[in-house]
């Protein structure tokens, strides 16, 4: 419980409604319905963990994704933008690494195709699988989202970097 | 036998690093070759170069990752530099195969021990010594030796981004070893 960070469910409802109202597309009405529904679903669980929500891409699929999150074990969901990566969704979960990876794989499997926005999950629990197993699954996840593990925020000339090695 | 390209470390890193000036050209070339039925392989030697270059820079903080990836990198780094490197190498490995179809292959025969006079030498080093006439630095010579020994896997082409070292030996490799050399430049994209 982190009541000091908890957001009033009504705030979420307003945020979602405002965001959805801003969409000028035929899906806006449905998005609005889903927003209200998502807020209602979250109402009973908000103090359990879902403590921060910034909403940038207000699409119905985003709301489906939010509804699928285990709210009691999710510390925050952030919709953000990175200059090299573009828009992305970051889920911070209070889980061990293996559980977080399972959640991540599920989210990518079920939502990435519709969202087209890369999803990331980080965890606060321990690393309960070998780094090699983690890396193997991570590489596959990133490949599904077409996000290179070496997405850097600055220019690099690989030929020069390799020549420095010799 | 299926035509196979040996992808060297510069192309692998260029395909992985989105801010390298050849990134788009590398990704498109790999895609085009696969679409034409060409297999893409690399050696564990090339992959070691990629993994070491990447891990050292990630540990030293020389490379800044995009925000969500930085979180993951820092989380692993906080455990230990070993944990970061042990996770990073298979991440690159599976990403390369999954998205770009580049397989890291190992052929035990490259390391079979041969006798030369009284000395005993691994086959790949013997090949490299025999190819010294190519006139290139040892690091690149080892790639050429690996590609040459992998001809039995169908390798008929080397893909590289190293213009400076490979341009001057391109014709020689094609003529004498039957290995085509494709050099990707920043202009290609």
Could you give a short description of this structure?
Chain A has 166 residues and is α/β, with parallel strands linked by helices. Chain A has helices at residues 9-21, 28-43, 60-68, 97-115, 131-144, 158-164; strands at 53-54, 74-82, 86-93, 119-123.
Structure overview:
Chain A is of the alpha/beta class and 166 residues long. Chain A has one domain. Chain A contains 6 helices and 4 strands, in the order H-H-E-H-E-E-H-E-H-H. Chain A has helices at residues 9-21, 28-43, 60-68, 97-115, 131-144, 158-164; strands at residues 53-54, 74-82, 86-93, 119-123. Chain A has a 4-stranded mixed sheet with strand order 1-2-3-4. In chain A, strand 2 (74-82) and strand 3 (86-93) form a beta hairpin. Chain A starts with 8 loop residues before the first helix and ends with a helix. The mean pLDDT of chain B is 94. With 189 residues, chain B is α/β, with parallel strands linked by helices. Chain B has a single domain (4-188), classed as 5'-nuclease (Rossmann fold). At the A-B interface, strand 4, helix 5 and helix 6 of A face helix 1, helix 3, helix 4 and helix 5 of B.
Distance between the amino and carboxyl termini of chain B: 30 Å
Task: Supply the CATH class of chain B.
Answer: Alpha Beta
Unreliable runs of chain A: 1-28, 43-58
Unreliable runs of chain B, pLDDT <50, ≥5 residues? none
Principal-axis shape of chain A: globular
Mean pLDDT across residues of chain A: 72
Q: For the record, what is the CATH homologous superfamily label of chain B? A: 5'-nuclease
CATH architecture of chain B: 3-Layer(aba) Sandwich
Q: Estimate nothing, just give the exact number of structural domains of chain B.
A: 1
Structural class from helices and strands of chain B?
alpha/beta
Our count of domains of chain A comes out at 1
Briefly note the structural class of the backbone of chain A. Answer: alpha/beta
Briefly note the CATH topology name of chain B.
Rossmann fold
What is the rounded Rg of chain A? 18 Å
**Rg from alpha-carbon coordinates of chain B:** 17 Å
Largest sheet of chain A: 4 strands, mixed
Please count the helical segments of chain B.
9
> Average pLDDT value of chain B?
94
